[in-house]
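FANCJ protein
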Amino acid sequence: GPCTECSCSSGKKTDKNTSNTKKKENGDQSFIPKIFFGTRTHKQISQITRELKRTAYSSVPMTILSSRDYTCIHPVVSSSIGNRNEMCVELLEGKHGKSCLYYHGVHKLSEHHALQSAHRMYHAWDIEDLVSLGKKLHACAYFAARELMVGADIVFCPYNYLLDPQIRESMEINLKGQVVILDEAHNIEDCARESVSYGVTESQLRATREELDFMVNNNIRQKDHEPLRAVCCSLT
């Protein structure tokens, strides 16, 4: 029979206040968890969403969390080989007198998917589908995907979006009481190691040591800087 707990059984539009709740007959509200589906690569997300289209749950509201490397459609930022995150933030803050036209059109994308859901025309989609639609509507696919998370029953994302606390915080992901599925979970160890690892060059270590020498020699928080200097010395 049809589902009774998720929105695929109802074509009604959900909003931010009711997306995770379902009213009981007595007027109380019970929490309904989202499903967070984590994969190792973005390519695997494409495979999963393709399979989702073939099931009876293709109409369930969903979203895909991805980096700006895959979803940014700004012609300058997306073609840059530099740090796209920093460039995006600069545009959002209006530095150099420039802003992002596509960010201001985010509502076009989120409302488009909400409209489809309301008319029972909602279908599972892939990152490429969202980016293509974003280009057509001149709307940012990156922030639209984040907005769609509010009303989504299934959220697809790479492992590190679920494992890395900094990314979880920046993406406003709260896993308490949610359903978490990790595809090919034997890869979790490597992903966890990468999340807490950082690479530096020898020249960077030497430059850091010189700065710490300056701090210590000028009596600037010696107790804090001397142990750090010792670490740099041992590494070099």
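thats it. The beta strands are 21-23, 29-31, 35-39, 62-64, 154-158, 179-182. The chain has two domains: 35-196, 202-235. bye
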